[in-house]
Amino acid sequence: MASDTRQKLLARRAVGPRNSSRPLCVAVPDFDGEGRTPDLNVLFASTGCIDAKIIDDLLPRLARLPDVRLRTIIDVDFTGADLIRASTHSLALQNTARNGPVNTQSVEQEAADLCEWANLLVLGPMDANTLAKMLHGHTDNLLLEIMRSWNVSKKVLLVPGMSHLMWENPMTKKQITKIRRKWNWIQVLEPILWSFEGDKKKLDTWDAPTEDLVDAVRNQVDLMNIGQGLDVSPASRIMITSARTGVMETPNCLLPPELWTIIFDFTGDWELAQTLHIYTNLPPPADWTSHTARQGPRNYMEALELTILRGNLADVKHFIATHSVPRWLSKLCIKLIMRFAMTPLLAHLEANHKDLFWATFGHTFLPDKASSVFGRTEILEFWRTSPSFLTKEYNPEALDGASRAGFVNVLEWWQHSGLPLKFTEAALEQASSQGHVEVLEWWKSQSTTVDDTTASVVDSSKIRLKPGKSICFASQSGQTAVVRWWLHSGISFPHEDTVAKLASTHGHVEVLQLWHEHKGSKVIFDNQVLVGATKMGSVDVLEWWKKSGLKVEYKTCDVEEALEDGHEGERGLAVRRWWARNGLNLGVGTSEWMKTKFLNS
User: How many angstroms separate the Cα of 584 from the Cα of each of 19, 572, 581, 596, 599?
Assistant: First the structure.
C-alpha cells in the first residue's frame, strides 16, 4: 500500500507543479551565450495592394531570412483565407480601423505592444493614401497608430506602392523628399508601381523592389549582429594607427620582419596582420578564403572588402570612383571600419555618400557598437562631433555592453563626453558575470553615496547604481573575486538569499566558502542547495555542506528525484556513492520517504 502511495506521489510530481512551498530560485538570464546570434524582430506591414504575391512570395522570403522573427499586418481588403495563409509564415493581423471606444483601446494597446516588440518596421508596400496620412500624423488604423508611436531610434524601411501616374505626381515627389530630408529614421526604397488592365490591377515592378527590400532587411540583420563572436578584449585592442590617414600601417620599430611574423602567428590575428602589411603563415579565416584564392575576389563586394582590409583611404576612394557606389556595405566592410577605427573613411562616406553612410551607420549604430562590441573611443569621438548626429541618440546597450566587455576606456569616454549616462541593471550584472572588478570599481567611483529615500540634495555629477541581480550572476558564474568585491563595496544589493543556492547548483565551492566566511551562521539557504548539487553531480559541493557545520535539511523524496533527473555516467555514480556513504536509504516507506532529515544528524 505504501509503495502504491509512493508511486502516485511520483506520478503527481512528474506531471504536476513542484512543491509550492519550495522557495523559487531567481531567474538569471544567460549572459554567457556568446555563440548565440540574436534575432531581429521585424514587423512587416502592407497596405493598398492585395496582390497574392505579397502573401505567397514576399512574406515567405522575409520569413526565411536567418535570425529574423516576423510579425505581419496585412491590408483589411485581404480575405480570411489570405489571413490564414499569411499566418503560416508569421503571426498575422489585419490593419484594423479605429471605430468605437472598445476597438480604439484595442488598437492602441496592440500598437504599443508591437512598437515595443519590433526592432525594425518594414512597409511593403505603403499606398499613397496611407503615406499622406502618416505625414500628417493621422491614427485612424493600426498601422498609422504604430507609425505615430514608433521609437525613431529604430529604423523603418518603406517601399511606396502606387500607380505610375501617382508616382510621377509632384505631390508624391514632395512627400518622398520630405521623408528623405527630415524623417531620417525612414529609408525609402524602390517603389512597387502598378497600372490597370480593365478592372484588374497589374504590378509592373515587383522583382527589383522586393529583392531590394529583402536585401535591406538582411543588411539590418548583419548590422545588429556585427561583431558577434568577435574577441575584442581590452588587451587585444592595442594596435598601431596612423593619425594622418586613420588606417593601419607597418610598425615603425627595430624589430625584424621575421619576429613580427612570429608574433602575429602566435596571436592568430590574420586580419590585423593583413592590415599592417606583415607577412604571416596564418591561413585566411573562412570569411576571407574566397577573397584570397588564386583567381582573386569573385565579385564587387569581395573586391571592396579586400581593398578596405589592405588599402588606405585613397585606395578605397579610387575603388568606388572606378567602379560604383555600393547600395549596402557588407558585414565584413562594416566590421573592418569599426574594428580598426577608420574614421577618415567614415568622414568620406558621410560627406560624399550620405545615403550609404546613413543607411549603414545612422541612428544609434555607431555609439552602441563602438561601445559594446569594438571598444573604440575614436569612433565615439567621431560620432560626438559629427554634424549628422545632432541629437546624440544612443541606447543603454552602449554602457551595458561596455561593462560586459570590460571596456573601462569606453566608460571613461562616456563620463567625459558631457552626455547623460544611459544604463540598466545589466551594466553591473554583466560586469559581475564576466568578472570585471575594474569595471565595478569604475561604476562605484561614479555613484552617489546617499540613499534614494533619504536624499535631499544630490550631487548631479553622481549616478545611482542599479545592482539588480549582480550577486546572482557572480555566484552562478563562480566569480569569487566579484562576490568578495560586492561584500566589501559598501553598496547594498538584493538577492542575498540566492547565493548559496546558485553557487551550490553550479558547483562553485570557493563562492560558498567565501560567503560562509563572511556571513557565518546567517547564511540563508534551504534544502535546494543539496538538491541542486545532487542533480548537477557536484560531489565537492555536497562534501562542503557536510563539513560546513551548518544544519542542512533534505527529504529522501527530493534527493531521489534529483538523482533520477541528474547526471548519468561517472558523475552520477559518484553522487550516488556519496549519498550512500552519508545515510541515504531509498528503500524506506512513504512516511519516512517524505520526512525532513538533516545532513550529519
Answer: 21, 15, 8, 12, 10
pTM of the model: 0.84
Q: What torsion, rounded to 10 degrees, do the Cα atoms 46, 212, 129, 152 define?
A: 80
Neighbours of 342 (CB within 10 A): 28
* Alpha-carbon span 280 to 269, nearest angstrom: 9
Which whole-number Å values give the CA distances from 549 to 164, 331, 526, in the listed order?
84, 57, 15
Kindly list the averaged pLDDT for each block of 10 residues, start to end, along the chain of length 601: 48 42 46 64 97 97 97 96 96 92 90 97 97 96 97 95 97 96 94 92 95 95 83 53 43 77 93 93 94 92 97 97 93 96 98 94 95 97 96 95 97 96 97 98 84 42 91 98 97 96 97 97 94 96 96 94 92 95 87 88 63
Amino acid, res. 328:
W
Write the CA distances from 341 to 32, 410, 466, 478, integer angstroms: 27, 14, 31, 35
- The Cα–Cα gap between 380 and 378 comes to 5
Buried b (16+ CB within 10 A) or exposed e, 540-579: ebbebbbebebebebbbbbbbbbbeebbeeeebeebbebb
Q: Supply 196's cell numbers.
A: 490597370
**What does the alpha-carbon distance between residue 334 and residue 337 come to, in Å, rounded to a whole number?**
5
Q: Are strands 156-163 and 186-188 parallel, antiparallel or unpaired?
A: parallel
Instruction: Enumerate domains of the chain plus CATH numbers.
Output: 40-224 (3.40.50.1950), 234-446 (1.25.40), 462-525 (no CATH), 526-601 (no CATH)
Phi then psi for residue 484, to 5 deg, are -60, -40
Q: Which residues of 352-377 are buried (b: 16+ CB within 10 A; e: fewer)?
A: ebeebbbbbbbbbbbbbbbbbbbbbb
In degrees rounded to 5, what are phi and psi of residue 375? 65, 35
Encoded amino acid at 514, one letter: L
What gap in Å lies between CA 62 and CA 66, rounded to an integer? 9
